[in-house]
Design goal:
CATH topology of the largest domain: Aspartate Aminotransferase, domain 2
Order of helices and strands: HEHHEHEHEEEHEHEEHEHHHEEHEEEH
Structural class: alpha/beta
Largest sheet: 7 strands, mixed
Number of strands: 15
Radius of gyration: 22 Å
GO cellular component, one term: cytosol
Main location: cytoplasm
Helix content: 25-40%
Family: Belongs to the class-I pyridoxal-phosphate-dependent aminotransferase family.
Number of helices: 13
Distance between the termini: 74 Å
GO molecular function: cysteine-S-conjugate beta-lyase activity; glutamine-phenylpyruvate transaminase activity; kynurenine-oxoglutarate transaminase activity; pyridoxal phosphate binding
CATH superfamily of the largest domain: Type I PLP-dependent aspartate aminotransferase-like (Major domain)
Number of domains: 2
Cofactor: pyridoxal 5'-phosphate
Strand content: 5-15%
Bound molecules: 4'-deoxy-4'-aminopyridoxal-5'-phosphate
């Protein structure tokens, strides 16, 4: 042993093949840039206003007076009070009886719920349909599991009457969608309300997806983290509640979005035992368990919501009302300066067309980086305003078709939105003077 050289460096390649091509991550890069340069951050999706008092109080109770056992392990697949509250809530939402122990599993945020799904269901060679634009980790997670992502875009149609475009104007082409299904298709990922567009899929659109899932015997991984953030009186339809879909759908949610506490990283899956049993296998062999105190506090928050269900004091009623006002504030600011927003039906994001501002950041042909990446970085560095390029939510092959939009998050204090407005106004003035 002593005869070995001190600096015996490894020479063999260390990276597992499954990591090839997924090492870059938009969030790591843009979060760092925003922290360095931006004065006003409407980039990454998180509220800058406080989580509700009842949630903070619940955490204090869990930490303090309650049981000291809340500092210890709890049940691997979900703290019993939390899975019980979630089962009660989803019984209402899905209109069926649920067993908290087998139909619900708690995860480290919706992120881990997604990871469990892809690991549990996708084999080498399986195809997974992803609707563009999509939350970027779907693609990497499918690839890590050995699957092949098959992309199908929502196609924008400009409204004829001169009104602002709505996220509802971005639609699937039914034939194009159908053409992506084959005997190799294992699953489709649905995200409604959709990040980044804010599109809330209509019942008709969901029925089309459901019909294809049933026809081709395909699973549906339904990411519904923004389920309560729906505006203008619209309704969020849960695809698991459509005929034939319960048996093949995993519904994914997040306390981070539901209770404006993204740092807590408490998420869940709801579905039939025959699917969730495989998620439990992945969970018990990877994460095993999520922080008990956070689960206890989220359980109490849900118990409150169950008591107030449908009442005006419910956070599920109040949060979207507040966010709709914030959405409208940001829309006004963007319209006033000529950045055309696509009015979102849901989520706390909107995308805006930057065409009128392109003269500030000249296009350079044949660069590796898409134009909207360069525009957004320029805006952060030169204007102090952070956003996220829309093409980050597209596959490599389709990125270059969507470089005229950037995404803003409007889950922000009024002062933050006003500061963004000031930056935009000043910028517009400089352009025209
Ligand atoms: N899905 C979507 C569509 C998201 O936007 C996010 C968070 N940005 C997640 C899942 C992850 O949620 P969590 O923070 O609960 O892990």
């Amino acid at each position: 042993f002593l005869s070995l050289p001190l600096q015996a460096k490894m020479s063999r390649p260390v990276q597992a093949r499954r990591l090839e091509g997924i090492d870059k991550n938009i969030w790591v890069e843009f979060v760092k840039l925003a922290a360095t340069y931006s004065k006003v951050n409407l980039g990454q999706g998180f509220p800058d206003f406080p989580a509700p008092d009842f949630l903070q109080e619940a955490l204090k109770r869990a930490l303090g007076g309650g049981s000291h056992m809340l500092h210890q392990y709890t049940r691997a697949f979900g703290h019993p009070p939390l899975v019980t509250a979630l089962a009660q809530l989803f019984e209402k939402l899905l209109g069926r009886e649920l067993d908290p122990m087998t139909n619900v599993m708690v995860t480290v945020g919706a992120y881990q719920a997604l990871f469990c799904c892809f690991q549990a269901f996708v084999d080498e060679g399986d195809e997974v349909i992803i609707i563009e634009p999509f939350f970027d980790c779907y693609e990497s997670m499918v690839k890590m599991a050995g699957g092949t992502p098959m992309f199908v875009p929502l196609r924008p149609k400009a409204p004829k009457d001169g009104r602002l475009m709505s996220s509802a104007d971005w639609q699937l082409d039914p034939d194009e969608l159908a053409s992506k299904f084959s005997e190799r298709t294992k699953a489709i990922v649905l995200n409604s309300p959709n990040n980044p567009l804010g599109k809330v899929f209509s019942r008709g659109e969901l029925e089309l997806i459901a019909e294809l899932c049933v026809k081709h015997d395909v699973l549906c991984l339904s990411d519904e983290v923004y389920e309560w953030l729906v505006y203008d009186g619209r309704e969020h339809t849960r695809i698991a509640s459509l005929p034939g879909m319960w048996d093949r759908t995993v519904t994914i949610g997040s306390a981070g979005k539901t209770f404006s506490a993204t740092g807590w990283k408490v998420g869940w899956t709801v579905g039939p035992d025959r699917l969730l049993q495989h998620l439990r296998t992945v969970h018990q062999n990877s994460v095993y368990h999520c922080a008990t105190v956070a689960q206890e506090a989220v359980a109490q928050a849900f118990q409150r919501e169950l008591m107030l269900y449908g009442k005006p004091e419910s956070y599920f009623v109040q949060l979207p009302r507040t966010l709709q006002q914030k959405r409208d504030l940001l829309i006004q600011s963007l319209v006033a300066v000529g950045m055309k927003p696509v009015v979102p039906e849901g989520t706390y994001f909107l995308v805006a067309d930057i065409s009128e501002f392109k003269s500030d950041v000249p296009e350079v042909p044949n660069l590796d980086e898409p134009y909207d990446y360069r525009f957004t970085k320029w805006m952060m560095k030169n204007k102090g305003l952070a956003a996220i390029p829309l093409s980050a939510f597209y596959s490599e092959a389709h990125k270059n078709n969507y470089t005229n939009f950037i995404r803003f998050c409007f889950a922000k204090e009024e002062a933050t939105l006003k500061a963004a407005n000031d930056i935009l106004q000043k910028w517009k003035k400089e352009k025209t003077s």
